[in-house]
Design brief:
heterodimer; A: 222 residues; alpha/beta; 2 domains; 4-stranded parallel sheet; B: 140 residues; 4 strands; globular
Chain lengths: 222, 140
C-alpha cells in the first residue's frame, strides 16, 4: 500500500490560515489502512484545525468527510455535494488524491494533510517499511523476491557494496543489508549462481527518470 | 481574579472504583477537587484521541487519563494504548503552540488508593498555574 503520515499540525494551519470554511477529506484506501488519512484521522485533524483556529481567535467551519478513494474520477466528482460550503480542501489522501482533486477541480484550493512516504507494508503493528520503489521494471524474480531498488540504500543492481557490517547497511545501521538477505535467500534455494551474473547498466526511464509515467490499457479504454 | 480550571478526567472502571464507592461527597471529603469532571470508561484503551480533543474544544483547560499500571492493565494493554494516545496529543498541542502539560496520563493502582485523589490534586494545581486554555481565544 501507499504509506503516509500526517503533516505537523502547525504546517497545516499555515496552509489554511486564510480559510474560514474547510473541507477535511479522507480516503478509505491505503491511508486508512496505515492510519494516516482515514475516517478516524479526519476527525482528529478536523478537531485540531478547530482548536488551532480557536487559539488564533478565528472563526472556522470544518466539514469532515471520507471518500471511498481519491484516485478515481467518480469519487472525486462526489465532492460536488459540498459545493459552495468550503474555501479550501485539506486532503488526507496520498499525493495522488491531492493531485486528482487539483486536476479535476481547478477552481478549488487543495492542500496536503499528509506526507506520502513510500510503498510499503506493516510486519508489526504501527511500523511500516518501504518494500517497493515502483520503478516500473521489476527484477524480483532475480533477487529472491527482495527488492534492491527500494531496500538497498544505494539501489545497487550488483550488490553487495562491501560496506555492510554484520549484515547491517553501512548507511543505516538499523536496516539489514538487503543484498546479504538476497544472497542468503538464493543460497537457500540453491540458486546462488544467479549472483554471478552481472546486471547490465539499468535503463531508469521506466522509474520516472524519463518523465511522468502513464499506463494505457487498450483493452480497458472506452 | 481567581481561576478555577475546567478539568476533564477519563478514568477506567478499575482505577475509578473509589468514585463509585465514596460518591461525590466522599471524594470531596478526601480532597478530590470539585472542578474535575470524572468520565468513566470500561477501559482507557477505548478512549479515542478525538474524544480528548473534543474535551478541549468544549472548554476544558486540562485533560487527564487515569488507567491501570502499565504492566497490570485489566485488559492487558489498554492503559498502554491510552498512554500512547496521550503522548500523540501532547505532540499535537506543542505543534499548535499550547503547553503539552495540559494533558497527562496517570497509571494508578486499581481499587481504593489515595493516588487517585493525589493525581486529581496534582492536575488541578498544574492547570491552575498554567491558567485558562489558549483554545478559549475570542473568535474574530
Amino acid at each position: 500500500m501507499i504509506i503516509a503520515e500526517r503533516k505537523p499540525v502547525n504546517e497545516i494551519m499555515e496552509m489554511v490560515k486564510d480559510a474560514k470554511r474547510i473541507l477535511v477529506l479522507g480516503c478509505r484506501g491505503c491511508v486508512s489502512i496505515c492510519s494516516a488519512g482515514g475516517e478516524r484521522e479526519v476527525e482528529i485533524l478536523a478537531s485540531l484545525i478547530r482548536l488551532g483556529k480557536q487559539k488564533a481567535g478565528q472563526e472556522v467551519q470544518v466539514t469532515s468527510a471520507t471518500l471511498v478513494r481519491q484516485c478515481d474520477r467518480e469519487y472525486i466528482d462526489s465532492i460536488d455535494q459540498w459545493d459552495g460550503q468550503y474555501d479550501a480542501i485539506v486532503s488526507m489522501a496520498c499525493g495522488v488524491g491531492v493531485n486528482f482533486i487539483a486536476n479535476l477541480r481547478p477552481m478549488d484550493k487543495v492542500y496536503p494533510g499528509v506526507n506520502t512516504t513510500s510503498f510499503g507494508g506493516s510486519a508489526e503493528q504501527g511500523v511500516w517499511s518501504e518494500q517497493c520503489a515502483g520503478c516500473g521494471n521489476c527484477i524480483l524474480h532475480q533477487t529472491g523476491g527482495l527488492c534492491p531498488v527500494a531496500r538497498c540504500a544505494k539501489s545497487l543492481m550488483n550488490g553487495p557494496c562491501g560496506g555492510s557490517v554484520n549484515g547491517r547497511c553501512e548507511i543505516h545501521q538499523n536496516v539489514p543489508c538487503i543484498w546479504q538477505s538476497i544472497h542468503e535467500k538464493l543460497v537457500r534455494f540453491d540458486s546462488k549462481d544467479q549472483l554471478a551474473a552481472i546486471a547490465p547498466i539499468r535503463d531508469w526511464s521506466s522509474a520516472g527518470h524519463g518523465g511522468p509515467r502513464k499506463t494505457v490499457r487498450d483493452d480497458l479504454t472506452v | 481574579m481567581s481561576f478555577t480550571p475546567n478539568i476533564q478526567a477519563y478514568c477506567c472502571h478499575y482505577t475509578s472504583q473509589q468514585t463509585l464507592a465514596e460518591g461525590p461527597e466522599g471524594l470531596k471529603i478526601d480532597g478530590f477537587p470539585a472542578n474535575i469532571t470524572i468520565n468513566r470508561l470500561v477501559c482507557t484503551g477505548k478512549l479515542e484521541v478525538s474524544t480528548m480533543l473534543k474535551a478541549f474544544e468544549d472548554g476544558a483547560d486540562g485533560v487527564y487519563v487515569a488507567g491501570c499500571p502499565l504492566d497490570k492493565c485489566h485488559n492487558l494493554m489498554g492503559s498502554q494504548r491510552a498512554a500512547k494516545r496521550v503522548t500523540a496529543i501532547k505532540k499535537a498541542l506543542a505543534e499548535l503552540g499550547v503547553e503539552p502539560e495540559r494533558i497527562e496520563m496517570y497509571h494508578l493502582p486499581r481499587g481504593f488508593h489515595p493516588e487517585f485523589v493525589q493525581a486529581g490534586q496534582e492536575m488541578n494545581e498544574r492547570i491552575t498555574a498554567l491558567g485558562a486554555s489558549p483554545f478559549k481565544g475570542d473568535a474574530k
